[in-house]
Design brief:
The chain has 124 residues and is of the alpha+beta class. Helices cover 40% and strands 29% of the residues.
Length: 124
């Protein structure tokens, strides 16, 4: 398995998958229309807790860095428009902030925000 290593004249810099996950999560959440990361319903959501990089998985291979981002979108958002935007923003953020090349971003739309709200109301 390849590593995310940036080589400089003074030595090497290794960037952990957790850092890549965090960068990806922050970038994805900044997109208008993204209600959250991860599956539509998660125990943390119901309890009001949010994991910093929940819903993001990073795999480092010989071909590059593969990032899977699971999102819940707001109702009324065109999924076929927001998904490519998330891909672009996450890819650019990882390349810019971590200096990593060959980034592949897969988007999984797991739910719509109203589903979460209906379950929270039913629990009250």
């Amino acid at each position: 398995m390849a590593e995310n290593m940036v080589v400089t004249e003074n030595g090497n810099i290794k960037i952990s998958p957790e850092v890549i996950m965090r960068i990806s999560a922050i970038a994805a959440r900044e997109i208008e229309g993204v209600a959250g990361l991860g599956p539509a319903i998660a125990i943390g959501d119901i309890l009001g807790k949010k994991a910093p990089s929940k819903g993001v998985k990073v795999e480092i291979t010989e071909e590059g860095t593969i990032i899977d981002v699971h999102v819940t979108v707001k109702f009324g958002i065109k999924i076929n428009e927001i998904a490519p935007e998330i891909q672009k923003v996450v890819k650019n953020a990882v390349e810019e902030y971590a200096g990593i090349e060959n980034v592949i971003v897969n988007i999984y739309v797991d739910g719509i925000e109203n589903e979460v709200e209906e379950i929270k109301k039913a629990k009250k």
